[in-house]
Amino acid sequence: MHSYFPRIKKNKIINHLEVFPCVALLGARQVGKSTLAKHILQDLDSIYLDLEDPRDFAKLQEPLAFLEANSDKLICIDEVQRKPEIFQVFRTYLDQSNKPGQLLLLGSASRDLIKQSSESLAGRISYIEISPFTASEVKDLTKLWVQGGYPVSYQLDEDNSFDWRINYTRTFLERDIPQLGINIPAETLRRFWVMLAHLNGELLNASKLASSMGVSVPTIKNYIDILEGTFIIRQLRAYHSNTGKRLIKSPKVYIRDSGLVHSLLGIESYNDLLGHPALGNSYETCVISSILEVFDRYEACFYRSAAGAEVDLILQKGNKKIAIEIKSSQSPSLSKGFFECLKDIKPDRAFVIAQIDEPYPIKDDVWVYDLVSFLKLKF
After folding, report:
1. Measured between alpha carbons, how far is 238 from 250 in angstroms, rounded to an integer?
2. Hey, is 106 helix, strand or coil?
């Protein structure tokens, strides 16, 4: 039996239901959207439909009649992307009373869902993205890093978790992608995904990928759009400023979940990971995923000069800038290039995230923090 883990977005969802007529939870399949929604619904007068269940799907044959018959309740519709034509009906329904907390929608296909809903529900809907578990939601960070944050994967033992992720990838490629109307052979997309796992945390070079796959650059960009639109990968944009220095402009590409990186690369255990070249970038993936989920109001990018000096992550909000370097080491050291970058960026605060026990200053107002302590900071 899997446990319920308190999720950091729970209060945000409850608050938005008190303000917006409609709230949509978006995220990859199996990240815990349904579990979280049901946990919130148990305290409210509500009704829950899962459109993957034929009985629930049938209830929406006359969607407006169903919605109006249950207008005194919060209506939650899971896997809403299975019935995209319903969004126009939602608009009619919401405009009848315009009161907050009428609909809670859950969807796994961001691009289509957002396109459909933003056109018909502009001003009536709030989007909240739900990610796999973060370091502020679980106790075992090594397990989170190795097995990733998908709730089932995290809670299984090492062997079964690895098998679960292999099957997750297969189901995603063979079932979920075709259901979105995308006609790319599963094996082609799987090859591309494995290639991205090898390049995880590196600069995107679409021409090189196109050459390796034997396809065109626009085709590679289409594959990237598909995996980004279904919350499997993220592109971290490059920092731009008028410092007068030549800066790298290509984005970096990360598979969002370190556990998926490991299953795609055949890394089954912590010991396997310790001897693998992917170690540093895999730790970066785990740290960045947690940081971006907790500090979700900040814009994120990375800094790299043409000479190769780099800062892994910069968080920006208004005039505020926070620079973050990520080291998988327990005794991190910083290059001269890092401090050169700080002179260019001029951040308000600078941190190193590393596997240490307690925070300490390292040099020039730069602090070393463990991930959990860092996520508790208020900026």
Report:
1. 6
2. strand
| 116-166: pLDDT as tens digits | 676 788 889 999 999 999 999 999 999 999 999 999 999 999 999 999 999
* Residues of the chain by 3-state class (helix, strand, coil), percent to 5: 45, 20, 35
Tokens linked to 280:
């540093």
CA distances from 311 to 22, 308, 339 (A): 39, 10, 9
Residue 351 vs residues 39, 104, 334, 336, 356: alpha-carbon distances, Å: 35, 38, 11, 15, 13
Residues pairing with 203 in the sheet: 252
Q: What is the CA radius of gyration of the chain?
A: 22
Give the separation between CA 191 and CA 193, rounded to whole angstroms.
Answer: 5
pLDDT tens, position by position, 33-75: 999 999 999 989 999 999 999 999 999 999 999 999 999 999 9
The strands making up 320-326's β-sheet, listed across from edge to edge, are: 202-203, 252-255, 233-238, 299-304, 310-317, 320-326, 349-353, 366-369, 360-363
Q: How far from 255 is each of 131, 168, 247, CA to CA, in Å? A: 12, 14, 24
pTM of the predicted model, to two decimals? Answer: 0.93
Stretch (H or E) spanning 349: strand 349-353
Distances in Å between the Cα of 161 and the Cα atoms of 144, 154, 164, 165, 289 are: 11, 7, 5, 6, 19
Beta-carbon neighbour count of residue 261 at 10 Å?
25
Angular region, 371: left φ>0, alpha ψ -120 to 50, beta rest: alpha
Pick the closest to residue 290 from 133, 59, 184, 171 (CA basis). 133
Q: Is 368 helix (H, G, I), strand (E, B) or coil?
A: strand
| Phi and psi, residue 8, nearest 5° | -70, -20
Structure tokens at 212: 């390796």
